[in-house]
User: What shape does this take?
Amino acid sequence: MGSVSLVTIMLRDLLDHFTAAEIGSALTQAGLPQPGQVQPNPLPETSLLSYRIIDNHRSHIYHRPDCPNYSQVALQNRVEFNNTTEAEAAGYRRAGNCP
Assistant: This one.
């Protein structure tokens, strides 16, 4: 799919049918972040251990669930680990935009 993410394609399709304000309002009502908005994770670090670490096998960079690009790693590039220790042992490094 190149540099265009599935989310971008979906947003373009939505904009064909709804205004950006209508989409933003629906996202807010559903408790979801606006496109491009980073949501801080209010949970302590230990609570993240129940979530998988997503790695990009092309870049060898991993993303924790509290990282802004966690869900944006292309499916065909994903490798998952149970924790950061496993990811780092396999040669992956933390994404630079992770808190």
In short: The first helix runs from residue 6 to 17. The first strand starts at residue 53 and ends at 56.
